[in-house]
Design brief:
two-stranded antiparallel ribbon, elongated, 545 residues, 20 helices
């Protein structure tokens, strides 16, 4: 799903953010007010090189960084940190399951030869669950909502065995995001019920990633996200930031509405691209339902034909869940987390920041889903922390602030290189290089591959003095036997239970000790090949904070 390109970096990267989107002239006061909410253009700081210390300049990257044709920063398509990748895999699987269920149900075929249901007295024949007529239903929304066979087919799809469990999850997540999204949409001058577009795009999943390489709750592809002001680089992916992506989506939808003159066509353009809508209009189709009724792929793809009725169906069911069989007791409503923003001056491990705030690392990932690494970017960054932890962070952070910064070196893989040799040269654990670059196997290196090497500058993981450059035999071939080290005299012994997702490298980061030290305490010979079992207890001699 995600490319496995690894990265090189011998400098702190600063990147040019995407150009700010230029709004079209406002045609009404509401549009003018919304335009004022646009994200400001990002300022591009000057490139700052970081010396490769005493490592003997193992790669020519620093030289390349000064050349005009060198892009300031590593490629953005490197795999995410394992903890983040786990969240991506989980939410992406849910999105793919829903897509397959929709495809197998052929629910999109109901768009053929349908017309909007006309307003009238009494109940809606196609939706007997509702006790009011169409005019009353439509009055509940500030977006177009119609009832026809296509819309009702999606209502029944959401109720079906294949989709119901997923829709229950979506309803649970909606409690966390809908009100905040409504505020943003209102500020940007859009109908507030446009919020249901995020529901059908991702189920309000920040980490959802589609087959089309779209990401985040509003499912931006990289190019479109950048065009509307979202930063996407090796360190962050703001398509996953719920608030910034919502504002970007609002601007995009506003532009689509100005281009098409109709919200149904704007939604269809969000899914298919406005160019396809323009082509349909040139063929004489001015109404979405006419476009959807055209046979085959002549005008719209099946996915786009179903997109508009699916959005309307999601809006109808979400405002009347009980009527359609979604009981309150089966929905686990998530809650919006009020947060404070703290300034982190440079790259710092999330585990250290979590310790300063006295919260879990997962809590920080949840509040900062845009972060792609186990650390903040190597530039000043505003990190969100739970507002309840703000005072604790303010009290603890000054003591840690100057001791836990990270620097990054780079290495281009050459013939004969092994990860163990590279790790020894830079004085860092193999596991750290693997996790920073999203490598699943220490043996899968390619000549010319670019690696980024994390090198803490403070007390978390002090670098060793490197030996002279030489060919180092891979760790897996060594025949040494490691026995548990004696207890450090100045630290009490305790144990730590391995949890799902833990690695020896991540545990050592949280403890603030070197990986080799942790392995010595537990008689672990080769951390790269050691199978860490969930529930296993490790011996530690460190304050876990």
């Amino acid at each position: 799903m995600r490319p496995t390109t690894a990265i090189l970096l011998t400098f702190f990267a600063v990147y040019a953010a995407a150009p700010a989107f230029a709004q079209a002239p406002a045609q009404a006061a509401a549009a003018a007010s919304a335009a004022a909410q646009a994200l400001p253009p990002a300022k591009v700081p000057e490139l700052t090189l970081v010396p490769a210390s005493t490592l003997g300049a193992p790669t020519p990257v620093a030289d390349r960084a000064t050349q005009a044709d060198w892009v300031a920063g590593p490629p953005e398509d490197a795999p995410d940190d394992p903890a983040t990748a786990e969240e991506i895999d989980k939410e992406s699987a849910e999105l793919e399951d829903m897509r397959k269920a929709e495809e197998e149900s052929h629910v999109d075929e109901a768009t053929a030869e349908v017309a909007p249901h006309a307003p009238g007295e009494g109940r809606i024949d196609l939706l007997p669950e509702l006790d009011h007529d169409l005019a009353q239903l439509q009055a509940e929304y500030d977006i177009p909502v119609e009832v026809n066979e296509a819309v009702v087919s999606y209502v029944r799809f959401f109720q079906s065995r294949a989709a119901r469990a997923h829709f229950v999850k979506w309803l649970g997540r909606s409690h966390r995001y809908i009100e905040r999204y409504r505020e943003i949409l209102k500020e940007e001058g859009l109908p507030q019920d446009t919020v249901y577009l995020a529901m059908i795009e991702s189920g309000f999943g920040n980490f959802a990633y589609s087959r089309a390489r779209a990401s985040g709750p509003w499912q931006f592809i990289a190019a479109t996200g950048k065009h509307f002001g979202l930063t996407l680089d090796f360190w962050v992916d703001e398509r996953r930031d719920p608030e910034r992506s919502a504002r970007a989506a609002a601007r995009y939808l506003k532009q689509l509405y100005q281009q098409t003159g109709d919200w149904r066509l704007a939604w269809a353009g969000y899914n298919a691209g406005v160019g396809r809508i323009f082509k349909a209009k040139k063929k004489g189709y001015d109404d979405f339902w006419e476009m959807a009724a055209a046979p085959g792929r002549k005008v719209l793809r099946a996915e786009t034909k179903g997109y508009v009725p699916k959005l309307m169906a999601a809006a109808i069911v979400s405002k009347h869940p009980e009527a359609f069989g979604f009981k309150a007791e089966e929905i686990e409503p998530q809650r919006w987390t009020e947060y404070a923003e703290v300034d982190v001056p440079s790259a710092t491990l999330l585990s250290v920041l979590a310790r300063a705030a006295a919260v879990s690392e997962k809590a920080l990932i949840d509040l900062n889903p845009e972060l792609r690494r186990a650390c903040t970017p190597p530039r000043p960054y505003k990190l969100k922390i739970p507002i309840a932890a703000a005072e604790t962070f303010a009290a603890n952070w000054p003591a840690l602030k100057g001791k836990v910064r990270m620097t990054f070196a780079g290495h281009v893989v050459r013939r004969g290189d092994t990860l163990s040799a590279i790790a020894l040269r830079f004085g860092v654990p193999v596991q750290g290089i693997m996790e920073m670059n999203g490598l699943k196997s220490a043996r899968r290196l390619r000549i010319g591959q670019e690696l980024i090497v994390p090198r803490p500058t403070g007390g978390v993981m002090a670098a060793r003095t490197p030996e002279p450059a030489r060919r180092v035999e891979p760790v897996a071939r060594r025949r040494t036997t490691r026995v548990a080290a004696a207890a450090p005299a100045d630290r009490p012994r305790s144990t730590l239970r391995v949890r799902p997702g833990d690695t020896l490298w991540s545990i050592s980061r949280k403890l603030g000790v070197e990986l080799d030290e942790l392995c010595r305490w537990n008689g672990i010979e080769d951390p790269g090949r050691h199978k860490l079992l969930v529930g296993k207890q490790l011996v530690v001699y460190a304050d876990r904070g």
